[in-house]
From TrEMBL:
It holds the Pfam family Glyco_hydro_125. Transmembrane segments: none annotated. GO terms for biological process: carbohydrate metabolic process. It comes from the Bacteria. SMART domains: DUF1237. This is Metal-independent alpha-mannosidase. The lineage of its organism: Bacteria, Bacillati, Actinomycetota, Actinomycetes, Propionibacteriales. InterPro entries: 6-hairpin_glycosidase_sf, 6hp_glycosidase-like_sf, GH125.
Length: 426
């Protein structure tokens, strides 16, 4: 699914940059095997993309898995077709149910059918996550900029964009305007929302509420700051597409106004003055004075702020936040004999996520740090040669998910960026 010559040239660039045959071979194998293992072209020309070892398509994961392929697709028309097919399938799903995070290949009713929420047979899971709606907008913008193809933005895009703006606007005042309720009765507190499915009480901030985090865990305080940062960025992309491609000034204006609301909310509620680090970003807030100073391994995270495009890697508030996140003051920063890095409340204690290690490298301004993180990822596969969801800092043979295609993709993206391969789309 990727041209052999394109992959061979990229592998040689990685080999030259890292000076490491094992890293280069891990990169080559992941790039060659990842997409064929998860992608299926459908008769309608769209592409259904599995989320690794789960037989469903997550809006977030299906876009995140494509990031390294976007860097190489300018030279590969067939790869472009496959990636555009993923986008078009995502857009159809968004219109079908913008509150859903994961979908079935067809309307077969598979998935979390026991949840206390109304679900279409197309929907695998209906955990509402703000980032799930960010990823298709980002993918559309990047594909349009990288390929220059007119068929990237088709009639499906406008309908999905309208649905996204409408939902995000409603969820600015979740308490009074939202129809969304979610309960799962599996005795896992992070799998459900309190107050009979409404979630913890919040007060409007200008930001847009989210029921769940990128980890699929319930938010604690309602307003997920890195998710809103990502929303701000993609609303900027939407404004550009609405103006330059769709010629729809009304849609462009709505995107601009909502982005301004969100940015104002982040500025007023999303930062905290820390006694040690100074002004830092909070992970979540409730609009009533409570804030959560952590980071979660899944992207978008606070660590990934430069990667999603909200602020530069040398931004003062980001750097202060980064110092906090990569320290013991972040309760999900784990140290051990074999690794140190950010984990997640979604997985057991003392387990670091390869995704977070890759994000740490991708947001670093140090080539030495990127090289060190690639070597750490190389050495912590537990003998499998694959990235996992998480692994134990004292024993990499203890891990969750033997094969996690999103993590493999992040490793590959880090290798490409370290080798100087950039799409140059902004």
């Amino acid at each position: 699914m990727i041209d052999a010559e394109v992959l061979a040239r990229a592998t040689e660039e990685v080999r030259r940059a890292t000076g490491d045959e094992v890293i280069a071979e891990m990169f080559r194998r992941s790039m060659a095997e990842n997409l064929p293992a998860v992608a299926e072209r459908l008769p309608d020309g769209t592409t259904f993309l599995l989320t690794g070892d789960i037989p469903a398509m997550w809006l977030r994961d299906s876009a995140a898995q494509l990031r390294p392929y976007l860097l190489l697709c300018p030279e590969d028309r067939a790869l472009q077709d496959l990636l555009i097919g993923v986008l078009h399938r995502q857009l159809e799903y968004v219109v079908l149910d913008p509150y859903a995070n994961a979908f079935n290949r067809e309307a077969n009713g598979a998935g979390h059918t026991g949840d206390e929420i109304e679900m279409s047979p197309w929907v695998w899971e209906r955990k509402y996550e703000i980032d799930s709606l960010c990823y298709p907008l980002e993918l559309a913008y990047r594909l349009w900029r990288i390929t220059g193809r007119a068929d990237v933005i088709d009639e499906r895009f406008k309908a999905a964009a309208e649905a996204i703006i409408a939902l995000w606007t409603v969820e600015q005042d979740h308490e009074n305007r939202s129809p969304y309720r979610f309960q799962r009765h599996d005795d896992v507190p992070t799998d459900t929302l309190v107050r009979e499915g409404r979630g913890r009480l919040t007060r409007p901030t200008g930001m847009s509420w989210s029921a769940f985090r990128p980890s699929d865990d319930a938010t604690e305080l309602g307003f997920n700051v890195p998710g809103n940062m990502f929303a701000s960025v993609v609303l900027g992309y939407l404004e550009v597409i609405a103006t330059e491609v769709l010629k729809d000034s009304g849609l462009a204006d709505r995107a601009k106004e909502l982005r301004a609301d969100i940015d104002d909310g982040i500025a007023r509620y999303g930062t905290v003055e820390h006694a040690v680090y100074g002004r830092v970003y909070a992970y979540e807030v409730d609009g009533m004075g409570e804030s959560l100073l952590i980071d979660d391994a899944n992207m978008p995270s606070l660590l990934s702020i430069p990667l999603t495009g909200y602020a530069a890697a040398d931004d003062a508030t980001y750097l202060a936040t980064r110092r906090l996140l990569l320290s013991d003051d972040n309760p999900y920063y784990f140290r051990g004999e074999h690794a140190v890095g950010i984990g997640s409340p979604h997985t057991p204690p003392n387990q670091v996520w390869p995704i977070a290690l890759a994000v740490q490298g991708l947001t670093s301004t140090s080539a030495q740090e990127r090289q060190q993180l690639l070597e750490l990822l190389r050495d912590t596969t537990g003998g499998t040669g694959q990235m996992h969801e998480s692994f134990h800092v004292d024993d990499p043979t203890v891990f969750t998910r033997e094969w996690f295609s999103w993590a493999n993709a992040m490793f590959c993206e880090l290798a490409l960026v370290h080798a100087g391969v950039h799409a140059g789309f902004r």
